[in-house]
User: Fold these one by one.
Assistant:
Number 1:
Amino acid sequence: MKKLIKYLKPYTLLTILAPIFMLIEVVCDLYQPTLLAHIVDNGILKNNFSLILNTGLIMLGIAFIGMIGGVGCTVFSSLASQYFGRDLRNELFKRVQQFSFKNIDKFRTSSLITRLTNDVNQLQTLVMMSLRIMVRAPLLFIGGIIMALSLNKSLSVIFLFSIPILILIFLVIMKRSFPLFGEIQRRIDYMNNVVRENLVGIRVVRSFRREDYERERFRYANSLLMNAVIKAVMLLIIAMPFFMLVMNFSILGVLWFGGFLVNRGSMKVGEVMAYINYMGQIMFSLMMIGNILIFVSRASASASRVIEVLEEKIDIQSKENADKNPIGEGKVKFEHVYFSYSDKEEYVLKDINFEVNPGEVIGIIGTTGSGKSTLVNLIPRLYDISSGRILIDGKDIRDMNIKILRDAISMVPQETILFSGTIRENICWGKEDANEEEIINSAKIAQAHDFIIRLPQGYDTVIGERGVTLSGGQKQRIAIARALIKKPKILILDDATSAVDFITEQKIIHGVREIIRNCTTFIVAQRISTMMNVDKIIVLDKGVVVGFGSHSELLKENDFYREIYKSQIDEEVMRYA
């Protein structure tokens, strides 16, 4: 938690006021039993009604002041904890946004969601409890002991036996509960992952009639979470009777020994009653301390998970003296590029060498798993190469400012992702200040304008989460329009036209070539028909470039490309035979 305290510093005033108001409440609570003893011994036993009335009014006044203290502490601690939670969530989200793909691969999406929500909520609650209960309990504990000792030192010997036993119980619970609460958070991660996968893939689940299987998956994940919680809570269930036993024996001891002292004349009845009240406050404060320490165990597990995200080393960052000059032409060159996803894995790409001139349309084709998507992901530095160099306009991309680099590149990934909102908002996601003409032009190039204007509200049609109301081809065309509206120097279409027909695909490529001038374009595709009208084709096999040239050149000179071509042509012939 020490590493997270900085998020409370802007709210120092609130974190000071909360304990001060709690101190007021505790002092009022501690003073009440003494006044009660005064009423009993000097009022009730002596039939002094005016003393009872006056002292009672004083008790009411003190209770009212204590209430103000309690309300004030609750208000200030709640504000401090809410601000703390808000800032921590913002920082976590900001950090995740800075992650490279390698960083993101380290954490599951469901785990990041849990850390941003459940784990932060645990820490938020801990802050509020710290400013209230962790202030109240120690003050009540220390104050209760002082007041009890002031009443009778001999009777306080009972504390020497009961308090160490209670402390030992809570220490044992804390030691054993910490790993259990960490397991609870991991089970929440797993359950969130099952729910997320099911909701995202609900159409696949329904089409394959796998509802029973998914229900069983969720039941299993839910049961794992339940068992983890029960295992952790079981410690409390077992410990609480022992705690109550020690507490009741302590009160019984006070009653027995206090009665003996009253009979001997060493104590008054009211003092024994006050002492029992103080004993209750001391034991109650110990219970609060125990509960907060147990919660600290759970919050510590959440804190470690949050800190893990905050301290994750971002492997792709701009250098201090990074080149901030904008990309001018979009000439791309790979020099002896090697890449692997981790130091322990084999190279996914091996000795990649090619050069692309500004404005050229480059096709990338190869077998599944040959490294096509990996290759284009290296250009905007979504991953960093293992060795070699990638040059844009003669400059190593690792020497360029990342923001400048990515501002000049538009990418449409394999999985088309649209966001909740209107079609207009999704297209403008590529350029916030785009005007109507730019929106329509980019949609026309992407061959999306015609189907958009046929929708009920045209460009203002709400498409729903992930674009569920659109077909695959329509989503791809909107995603392409979103990429084109930036007017990038480099455009990457990673299998982004797989859901559109051949004619529409060729119109998109023609539009990119003819309308958006000097835009170097990389098109990853499986279809040989896509490759027929590009300038050059990169042929990949098992992470190695096995061919580079035009469609006609490769058909003549490259056996591997010719084999792909022949297999797809034969497949077309068989389909229409």
Number 2:
Amino acid sequence: MTGLLTRLAKSLLLLEYIKGEKDDIAVDVFFLTIDGKSLRKRIEDIENIFNDLKNSPLLSQQCSSSSNSSSEIPAKGTSKKSSRQEQIADSHRKISHMVIGRDKECEDISRKLRKAPDAYGPSSNSSRPYSVIGIHGIAGSGKSTLAQYVCEYEKKAKDKHFDLIMFSHVSTTFRVDKIFRDILEQTTQVRPSDTERLQSIQKEVKDKLQGKRFLLVLDDLWVNNDKQMEQDILLDALDVGQSGSRILVTAQRQDAGAALGCAQKQIPIPDLEKKEYLKLFMHHAGSSNDAEYKRIGIKIANKLRRSPIAAVTVGKQLRRNRRIRFWEATANDVVLNETMGALWWSYQHLGADTRRCFAYCSTFPRGYKLTRDELVRIWIAQGFVNTNSNAIGELEDVGSHYFDELLTFSFFMQVQRKFSGTELFTTHDLLHELAERVAGSDFHRINLNGSPKDIPAGVRHVFIGTNNGAKVVVEKNLDFRNLRTLIIEERYTGTDRTTQPMDDLEEVFDWLFMRLKELRVLIVKLNHGPKVVSVPASIDHMKHLRYLGLRFPCVKLILPSTFSRLYHMQTIFVRRNSNYMRVSCPEDMANLIHLRHVTAWMPFPNVHRLTSLQTLTHFNVKEEQGYELKQLKHLNKLRGALTIWGLGIVGSKEEALEAQLACKQRLTKLVLRFRNDTCNPDVTAEVLEGLCPPKDLVELEIQLYKGSRYPSWMLSRQHPDAPKRLQKLLLMGCSRLASIPEDSELFTHLRELHIIKCDWDRLPENMEHLVSLQNLIIHGCDEMELLPTLPESLRMIQISSSDALSTTCKEEGHQNWQKIQHIPEKNIFLSS
């Protein structure tokens, strides 16, 4: 104990020295400029001392309980759910009040967007159907937020002025193919493959924009004279739009908008008025009528130089800590006088583990979009996620807590929700700069125009975003002995014709595997490559590998027998662009007992041994030992989505019950796929009866079910394990659904119903009882001719490849036409 106190005293002397010099802001900036590696080592030493002390039985319970680290996980018996709900509500408040004090700018932008096309004159020549409007201001002034608000306003406006509204984050690297893909993803809900040729996606963009009045936001545009050809390609594609279309540009400099032909006066984003800035700050700090809080809040707000991003990050930390002494100390902290200093102050008040996870984000380029699951799993692979005896849940729950903390305090921001429901997040440019500073020399990125020769020796985390990046690394014979992360992502611009398929990919991999013996995370995303890729046997040299992410255009990936020796492996993520590819893997994959996530189509036997498994995207039932449905019995940690194929060979209800699906309480989506053959309908019905999903399931898909009846868990309120909160139901190639029982809980909360390729002659007669249903999609139902009375709650109906129904729904006066008139959005398509 004496030794611990001695070490602590020495460390505190260093901190006291720093604190004593606090009147000089240069000392605070010291933390942002000092070599990150040495500073982090000292900080970790101090934290280790505190941890040792905290675990000492000589410390009183009161002392240990006084800690208020934001990274702590609720102890057993506490309500983690209520805490998470508070965080979600807080984040929602941030989104709902994004534009405090910007009413004048909002009105000015909206007026210019909707003004007649000739009011300001075309952007460059009179034949173009669009004009360019520019917003400019310093980093952190709220340009992107304002543009996003304008987009949301226009989408929700009752008078739809624009047919299409699209948003693309451009950043310092202008890539026309990336902008085209953003446009198509938002207009078709499907993102084109990265391997598609520029000419192909350019044509598709023109087809989608042809004759449409559109609003396109190009966010964070930078002047780049080297990209003039790509800018011309973009503007050429936009020429097909209808007169009155608009391009809204946000940039830090006026000349960025002018480069795209912005002829009219651009809209500056000035500092907020003092009163409005205080309102913004106090909103995030927690509005209070207490005069003392307001007095100190004014003092703090005055130090922040009217920076919106500083108001948000500092304010949210103050909302969490309502002690007057803490507010007073903050008001006297000179580091808040600069925007970067204010962000650093907020960063310092995150939990220690959360800070380390945030610093890791500097590995990725600015504007890079990440999903929560991907980032949390990478943090886990790096050993950044810690649990203790009082923690609830898995490592993923703890990592998600870190993520929520960063999201709550605006270190992350949600930038996109894909059609699939996946949310994408990124960091504000200034916060990314902060991450780079605190990360130090352990992290290095090579962007599109960079060179691997610039990688410093001893670096631990590397992102290579160049074409043929993997091959260049080999040719330069770089020293990667200490590397913990290697991410290679081809960032093909679409105009570079020099990029060729990497035919020697296996040789490149072999070189990397033989040298990356300390690697924890390997992610390789290629736009070009051979159709079949065989991973070299030398992969077993990477004994510490925990996360493997591969995205190739190949049809098949072959993993060697040595792959099953990677005993630390936690996550396998293999995709073929937007789809899963076939993966051939060793029969003894179940030896990898630490596997937590398998996001790939790679069937292997005896999966029941992987009791830590949480993600298993596909399970294929076969008439072979090791592939029985009962293999799922003890995998009760499964979460997210699970697809079960081959249910047609299951022979009884008892066999289906062995899977114990109802026990997998964290599954949110379940796909049950039978097979389109001559299975006995009565047996199939018994099998489905035994496949009762967990009660908290959100999405259910039943495919190719030809049973003679529907299961009791689908129809009866009395079933104890039946889904109680199902929101989406998809039936594909199934026998007709009987009338919906009015006492069924499964349908109470249903918001979306898909009927796909079913040979039904009609929908259930009592559809009006689906009082929560908002979306109804009917596709490929040629036998269906008449609609029943539809629920008043419907907001959208889509009918396609069902010509009899589509024709009558478009025929004014027909009873089908009359039954859909109350629905705001009607998408009725006839087969071409």
Number 3:
Amino acid sequence: MTGDLAFIPLGGTGEIGLNLNVYRCDGELLAVDCGLGFGGPEHPEVDVMVPDPAWLVARRDRLSALVITHAHEDHVGAVAHLWPQLRCPIHASPFVSAVLRRKLGEAGILNQVEIVTHPPGGRWRVGGYDLEFLRVAHSVPEAQALAIRTKYGTVLHTGDWKLDPQPLIGPPTDEAAFARLGEEGVLAMVCDSTNALVEGHSGSEAEVRRNLAALIKGLKGRIAVTCFATNLARVESIAKAARAAGREVALFGRSLRNAEAAARECGYLSDTPPFLSEEEAEDVPDSKLLVICTGSQGEARSAMAKIAADTHPHISLGEGDTVIFSSRMIPGNERAILRVQDELSRAGVEVMTADDHMVHVSGHPARDELKRLYQLVKPKYAVPVHGEWRHMNEHANLAESLGAIAYVIEDGDVLRLAPGKPDIVEAVPVGRLAVDADRLLPLDGDVLAARKKMLFNGIVVASLAVDGSGRVLGQPQIAAPGLFDGAGEESAQIAADLARAVGDLPGPTKREDGPLREAARSAVRRALGRRLRKRPTVEVHLLRV
């Protein structure tokens, strides 16, 4: 459809993470953000997911650009996975560009991607779009809201933001720029809903710095602090607190080292001395060491997860040591985080979190901040995004109390903003893809369905040798890792059941590999059902000699 202005979320609306948004103006498409999400307890067979871009890929000849608002993984983490399908220019601030170059370099596609870097607060044109960055405070440097000016009116896409008078790295949110935009006239504001249920104010990063300094000063033994890698203000605060307490600071984890390199490239952390490597940290006395490490979300291969499992090659923690989780739990990661914290506690480590110490503030606006932004921008329409349904509904109620007309939509809805009154005019297909090494697999596809079945019901591999007439030679072998001991009684009984079942088959069935293999599979399934009352995946290896 042409002749309209529409907003089309393909991820991140009605959920946390996986942000992929599309604007359509007279048929020309503009994508904003391209992020990942975690599998969580709903999808234990998956570590990382990305939004399915199929609808957008089918129209990439009309896709003018991808704009990234900031460097958090739920907004930039899917770029390296999905860009080979999108193949459009990427527009970003200097810090996002530096982070992206490392990600794309690791993926081996950096030299293929056109990255256009704009200064914070910059303004430029892409096709029929007049675009402007507006500086906002967030828990990462150079977060930008995006003003999208079109012939139908202006849309403000806030990205992630908050009102922090002392963000420590970078300036506060540019309220004057938002006020100017509001005076100019804003048709619609597409806005962060994460903390729409939270009364008051989200708090200041400066308060966290003061509290971390006081907390770390009084601790003995080794200290490890985990936080989001790109929260440079937090990393700087931890480093300052450590040095004030007479400790040296080491970085553990690839994403932290990449974020540090991008930060120093862009002029951040200039007053922070170089960090120790993981190897150098081994030689520092316990009372003189503080480690900043990855793993605040319980990620299985992160530095903190390895430390908790006592499998890290360069450090171990125990009685008298302290771990500080300077972060929040992203919904879906609770179980993994609590498991890591429990393992640390079992080893005698004292675990401190934001539940009992002032070691974290959110990077998202609470209700007082949302009210302030609506007062500045005065949008005609409000479109809550970046939250689950309860967050977006509460955001919509707040927006309407402040004079806007709110539209609560979900991924795949095509919300026509103009001309005329906004309306959901159609729906487009959306979905999620699992990141599986270098592959992207449909979340509802056969491969992951089989993996999920194996996760809960197990897998059994039966191997048997037969002669040309189908007579079983020797004893079949049964392997069932996770179900029973391969050399145990259950294995022997099922092998005997299989040999008897094959021996009872009609001659024609035994002489054809396909029918014989399927009959053997059915026999193993029946035997397992009788003995284990389970329905595992069964594979049969047939050798005819």
